[in-house]
Amino acid sequence: MTRVWKWNRPVTVREVLEDLQQERTIAYTTVMTVLDNLHQKGWVRREAEGRAYRYEAVSTRAAYAAALMNDAWSQSDNPAAALVAFFGMMSEEQRAALSDAVRMVQGPDTSPAETPPTTSSTTSSTPPSAPPSPGPSGEDPPEGPSSSAPPSPAPSGAAPNPGSVPDAGER
Questions:
Q1: Edge-first strand listing for the sheet containing 11-12
Q2: How does pLDDT run across 116-139, given as a tens digit for each residue?
Q3: How many Å apart are CA 82 and CA 62, to the nearest integer?
Q4: If 66 and its partner were Cys, which of 25, 32, 141, 153 is the partner (CB 3.0–4.6 Å)?
């Protein structure tokens, strides 16, 4: 998958073979078998071109990574503790990337100085980019705790099941 993602376009077995052979000796049939297996598992789609196929990734590497993280997190018996442990392992660069991602998900650019402080007892469950919608009687909805569920990393079907390919690193 690394080689297919690297080109970000449909590739042939021959192209992948030639790329891999710059690093190690590998047989054409091995590359063809791996790409066929990835196709059967739904990781790549293929289109006939003469007597060969061109293979293209079904999802991005980012969607694959997000699906792996989501799968691991959902299997935890204590998701909050798992996140705290994960954040503790992150480098400063990774924490900055996480902060950027949170800002993108939350909507328009708002710096911490512009965001009104919240108390631990009440936070709005309405995203900052959308005004609160009135309730059925026309009054503002009551404020309550925000949802602790994370946003979905990718639309349904965007990434194949990460458990279906045990080692996709160099495939």
A1: 11-12, 52-57, 44-49
A2: 444 444 444 433 343 333 334 344
A3: 21
A4: 153
